[in-house]
Design brief:
The chain is of the alpha+beta class. The protein has ten helices and 15 strands. Helices cover 42% and strands 25% of the residues. Helix 3 runs antiparallel to helix 4 and helix 7 runs parallel beside helix 10.
């Protein structure tokens, strides 16, 4: 009897010893009944599904093995566009709300998540102000009220400045939190290279943090393709299916614009008439263009080329945002472009509207 009891105690001790510490993620969402809910973990630059379950009675629970406390997780609901992200810091997490109303979703978790919630709440106020001003501007434009348009434009500009000031202060106040690189990375397009470097140099966190690593990689890419650096070569297919390399065009003209765009990009299509006008005016004087499309469907790409009159060289690998040339040039938004001189040096970036015309005119005239 004593031997059996001792064996049972040893077995129970072994079971407890083998169990790993974990935390719970409770998800309670309206309008998600019967949908698959995925728990994702952000590692190595991508979100990987680590568990999934069908939503029943509007509730699902996940048990997650503890790991790096700075790990970023997210909940993805089937057929819902945006995931719900959070930092757990190995603490229990509760997510409640309505999948049809993103603003209603509340995440209760760690101190880091509290910081994210605080930032998101304030940032949402700025977003709502900008959206309202945008609507008012459209109305004023329809009524051809130039005075109102000018006033709204100034107000819009001031709100954007206030938003940037708040974001900068928030990041600076939390240099010791891994939330700061997360916020900075998500807003990286709002900063110049030197600004990003300054923030990163002030961070007081472990450099193995996922978002700190992404920031450092992004900064290195920006440096490699910054003004004054030699161009990076790439090769992609033309609409006719032949391969064309950037190096085949560099040096053939005095100026070469590498223009990143896509048929599905509204701002790109709106900018195309300006680019066409500059090309027609200065092509004979030594200005050429290589269009690089971030399209996925070849037929859409070709139709847009014809519709917009893009009569220069065009290439694509049809990989959408994973376009390899766009990746090499750290393109995170479009339209985007780089201007290369006859020696193969990048001399300007992201020239639009009148700025493009002035730069080309300045050099060729």
């Amino acid at each position: 009897m004593k031997i059996r009891l001792l064996t049972l105690v040893v077995a129970l001790f072994a079971l407890v010893a083998c169990s790993k510490p974990s935390f719970n993620v409770k998800v309670e969402l309206q309008n998600a009944e019967g949908k698959m809910v995925y728990l994702q973990k952000f590692v190595d630059k991508k979100s990987t599904v680590i568990d999934s379950v069908v939503m029943q009675n509007n509730v699902v629970n996940f048990t997650v093995e503890e790991g790096n406390p700075t790990t970023y997780y997210s909940i993805k609901v089937e057929k819902v566009r945006y995931p719900i992200g959070f930092f757990s810091e190995n603490n229990d997490v509760t997510i409640v709300g309505d999948v049809k109303d993103n603003a209603s979703i509340q995440v209760t978790a760690s101190y880091a998540q509290q910081l994210v919630n605080e930032f998101d709440a304030e940032n949402r106020k700025f977003y709502n102000q900008l959206r309202e001003l945008g609507k008012n501007y459209e109305i004023a434009a329809q009524e051809n009220d130039e005075a109102a348009m000018a006033k709204i434009y100034d107000e819009y500009d001031q709100v954007e400045k206030n938003q940037a000031a708040y974001r900068n202060l928030f990041i600076a106040k939390n240099y010791s939190s891994f939330v700061s690189p997360y916020i900075l990375y998500n807003n990286r397009l709002s900063y110049e290279l030197y600004e990003l470097e300054d923030f990163v140099n002030h961070f007081n966190i472990a450099q193995d943090n996922e978002f700190a690593k992404l920031l450092n990689e992004y900064i290195l890419k920006l440096k490699r393709v910054s003004v004054g650096q030699p161009y990076l070569d790439f090769t992609q297919e033309t609409p006719e299916g032949t391969l064309l390399s950037l190096s085949e065009l560099v040096g053939k003209s005095k100026l070469l614009l590498v223009d990143f765009w896509a048929s599905w990009c509204g701002p790109c299509r709106a900018e195309n008439p300006n680019v066409v006008a500059v090309y027609k005016e200065y092509h004979e004087k030594g200005f050429d263009i290589l269009g690089v499309s971030l399209d996925m469907k070849k037929e859409n790409w070709i139709k847009a080329i014809e519709a917009d009159g893009l009569i220069w060289h065009n290439v694509s690998d049809l990989k959408y945002w994973n376009n390899e040339a766009a990746q090499d040039y750290a393109v995170s938004s479009i339209p985007s472009n780089i201007l290369i001189d006859a020696e193969g040096t990048i001399i300007a970036k992201n020239l639009r509207g009148e700025d493009l015309r002035k730069k080309v005119e300045e050099i060729l005239n």
